[in-house]
Amino acid sequence: MVLRYLQKQNLQMLPVNDPKRFLLAGAHPENGTRDEFVRFCRQIHENSRDMHIIADMNKRPLTQLEKIGCCEGGVRCRLEELPFAPHSFDFIFADYTTDYFNDQQLARFASRSSEVLTKNGLMMCYIASPLFPLLDNMRKLISYGVMTHERGLNSFLQLTCPYLKTTLITEVTNGGFCKDSLVVLSPYNSIYSENTGLYAVKHLV
Questions:
Q1: How far apart are CA 167 and CA 197, in angstroms?
Q2: pLDDT at 156
Q3: What does R_g of the chain's alpha carbons equal in angstroms?
Q4: Can you state the angle between helices 103-116 and 153-160, rounded to 10 degrees?
């Protein structure tokens, strides 16, 4: 439903005969994110010339990609740097990746994304918005030894809006003290309208 909503603004968003370039920014090697990324991209756009790239700063998520059909391979890099040429990708997906960025890294990631996206490209970010971000970050550090930088939705938008406009926000789940959201961003010169209000959709397609 998210993509259908956006296609009303851009009828040429997913033309079948036009190859598209997809980037997954950050992936855990064991939670199925990589497989879902490739499967979803082929569900929304089946073209043999499509390109699927996975980028991560760690080596493990970039191994054995041919087993999930990601034959284009992976790129090992700091995600906030995104070492790609301008206008390299039509879609960038970040599956809770930004929850591990500090404020400076998130701003840099948004800045670089605005450069590597095509004019009407889209970045789709799943983010966790706990009611008490500081306490939740401390809990995860103590429980899992992982430093996170979960932040409220408004803080996320403040850090990204200098570089990308908010095209759509939708609540994905709402359990307990944490609300997950999907935020869709696009370059300021794209044809998509800016929308910072909550759009009540539950599915991507």
A1: 9
A2: 92
A3: 16
A4: 50
Q: What is the pLDDT of residue 198?
A: 67
Hey, what are 112's tokens? 């670089």
pTM for the full model?
A: 0.88
133, two tokens: 């971000």
**Mean pLDDT rounded to a whole number for the chain:** 85
- Which residues are CB-contacts of 10 (< 8 A; sequence separation ≥ 6)? 120, 191, 192
Specify whether the CB–CB gap between 194 and 157 falls below 8 A: no
Q: Which CATH number fits domain 2-186: 3.40.50.150, 1.10.150.530, 3.30.450.40, 3.40.1350.10?
A: 3.40.50.150
Half-sphere exposure (CA, 13 Å, Cβ side) for 185? 28
Neighbours of 158 (CB within 10 A): 14
Decide: residue 16, CB within 10 A, 0-12 exposed, 13-18 middle, 19+ buried.
exposed
Dihedral of CA atoms 72, 59, 76, 18 in degrees, nearest 10, equals 20
- The pLDDT value recorded for residue 178 is 64
Question: With a cut of 50, which residues of the chain have pLDDT below it?
Answer: none
- Give the C-alpha separation, 34 to 53, whole Å: 10
Residues 6+ apart with CB under 8 A from 158: none
Residues forming a β-bridge with 122? 91
Q: What is the pLDDT of residue 109?
A: 97
**Tokens 């064991």 appear where?**
30
